[in-house]
Write a structure and sequence with these properties.
402 residues, alpha/beta, Rossmann fold, 2 domains, seven-stranded parallel beta sheet, 13 strands, binds nicotinamide-adenine-dinucleotide
Amino acid sequence: MSDISHTFAAPLLRGLYIGAFGRPMALVPGSALGAAEGEAPEALSVELPREEGPAAGALSASLAAWRGSHGGQHMPGCVVLRSGSERRAYWPGLGLDDARRRMERRDAAPLPVPPPTAEIAGSARRRSGVVEGRIALVTGGAQGFGEEIVRGLVASGALVYVADLNLAGAERLSSELNAAAGRAAAIPVSVNVSDEASVEAMFALVAERSGGLDLVVSNAGVLKASSVLEQELAAFKFVTDVNYVGFFLVTKHAGLLLRRQARLAALWPTDIVQVNSKSGLEGSNRNGSYAGSKFGGIGLVQSFALELVEWGIKVNAICPGNFLDGPLWSDPVKGLFVQYLQSGKVPGAKTVEDVRKAYEAKVPMRRGCVGEDVMRAIYYLVEQEYETGQALPVTGGQVMLS
Ligand SMILES: NC(=O)c1ccc[n+]([C@@H]2O[C@H](COP(=O)([O-])OP(=O)(O)OC[C@H]3O[C@@H](n4cnc5c(N)ncnc54)[C@H](O)[C@@H]3O)[C@@H](O)[C@H]2O)c1
C-alpha cells in the first residue's frame, strides 16, 4: 500500500503547474522510486505533509526556493514527493502525450515558463478555443447529448474522459476519437453516477491519469415518463437517483479534487456544468419524476455554486430543449417518437414523422436542439469568468426565463 495517494497529491501538483503557467497542464505519476534510485538533479524534491493545507504550503515554499536558485523563469521538469520511506516522481507536460513522453524518457530538464500573454481589456477569446488543452470529464458520454459534447470538446482540442455505465460504448467512442485525432484525446472510464464508491473511484483514476481536471459535464440522465397516479415508487426513485443524487455525488467528488487543485492555482477558474433540461424550468405533464429531478438539480446548482465559488469552481446548468435527432427520441424501436405514436399522445398523428413535426411546431425556432447548440452554451459558460449558479436555456425560444 502506497503512502502517497495520487488522489491527494496529483491535483495539488497540477495546481502548482497551472498557477505558474496560467494554462491547463497534464501531470502523470512515474513508478515509485527504489531506495537506490537517485533523483534527477533538477527535480524539485518535497516531503509531503498529510493535511491538504500544509501540503500546499510545503509545495509552494519548496517551489519558491527552487525557482529562486534557477533564475525564476523555469518550472521543475519533475517533482519528487517523499512520504516516510516512499518517494514518487511526477512529470508535468503541455498535454498528456507530452507528460507521458517526458516521463518515459525520465526527462527532468527545467521547463521554461512563457511570459503571460497580454489580452486586450474587454476582448472575448475565440469561443471554442477556450477549452483547448483543458481536461474534461463527461458523464453519460457514450451516446446522445453526452457523445455530442465529447466529440465537440475533442474537436476543440480538449482531453476528455468519457464516463459511462456503458463502458463498451465509451471505449468504442474513445478509440475512434483517438485514432482520428492522432493524440491522447479521449479516455474511457466506467461509472455509475448513482453509486458513491463508483464516482469516487472515477475521480481517483482521473487524478492518477492526468493529475486533475478543468471541466466536469454532469450529463448522465434517465427518463421514465408516467402519470403520477400510476408510477411505481421504484421507477420514481430510479430517476431521482440518477438525475438528482447522481449530480450531488459527481459534484461532491469533483469538488474535492478541484478544491485540492485550486490550493495552488487560485486564479484558475474551473467548471462544473450540469446538463439539465427545459423540464427543469417548467413542469412536464405525466413526467413528474423527470421534471422534479431536474428542478431539484437547479436548486443544487445554485447552492453548490454559492459554496464552491471560494475555490474558483463555477457551477452552472444548461437547459436544452428536445434533442429530436438523438437516440432518446429517434431510436426506431424504443424512441419517444415511436412510443408517442403508439400511445396516441399526439392527436391525429399517423406516422413517426407526424409526431416529430408536432414537437418541432412547439419550438419558435422550429427545430429540435442539437449538439452544436449545447456546445456553444458550454463554451460560453467556460469562457465567462463572471457568472455562476445560472441555468441557461438552450431551447430555440420554447422556454424563456421569467
Ligand atoms: N434527449 C433530450 O431530448 C434531452 C433534452 C433535454 C435534456 N436532456 C438531458 O441530457 C442528458 C443526456 O440525455 P440523452 O437524451 O442524451 O440520454 P441518452 O439516454 O441518449 O444517453 C444517456 C447516457 O448516459 C448513460 N447513463 C445512464 N445512466 C447512467 C448512470 N447511472 N451512470 C453513468 N452513466 C449513465 C447511458 O449509458 C447513456 O450512454 C440527460 O441529463 C437528459 O436529461 C436530454
